[in-house]
């Protein structure tokens, strides 16, 4: 089966639910209800009011595939930015996610394509997010290898001019830790 180049929100929703619903080994086993939603205009800034309401930010950089809608060129990137806002309030946890796109180098049309993620990368991103949630919402100590080993892939240099997150000053290529 080929690597998907399509942005599939249901893959994220289903994987999120599966990781939380595993009765014997739930990633957030505190009895709270957690939900995942998408906001395609999410930024890496929190207002004072949002901070008071408990919102936190996590930025993740991972592997995904892209396909240009204009010229159909396919490319892979190990430097795809995902932005998460999350909070726990009154036994209800909320996660809001935004994927950032990349522009095609070939046709230079300044159109950002959304990424297609392999299942394994979706799980890796969510497991890292859950580790941040356990640390910041439940006070758990964070193990250095809590999400398993990270496969370092040798890739081309990050092309800031083609990165939607860079164009908005949000890119997390230098540091994939949370801001809070």
Automatic annotation (TrEMBL):
One of its GO terms (molecular function) is zinc ion binding. Its main location: membrane. Keywords: Membrane, Metal-binding, Receptor, Transmembrane, Transmembrane helix, Zinc, Zinc-finger. It is a single-pass membrane protein. SMART domains: zf-3CxxC. It is found in: Membrane. The keyword Repeat does not apply. Pfam families: Zn_ribbon_3CxxC. GO terms for biological process: protein insertion into membrane; protein targeting to membrane. Residues 61-169 form the 3CxxC-type domain. GO terms for cellular component: membrane. InterPro entries: R-trans_p, ZAR1/RTP1-5-like_Znf-3CxxC. This is Receptor-transporting protein 3. It comes from Anoplopoma fimbria (Sablefish).
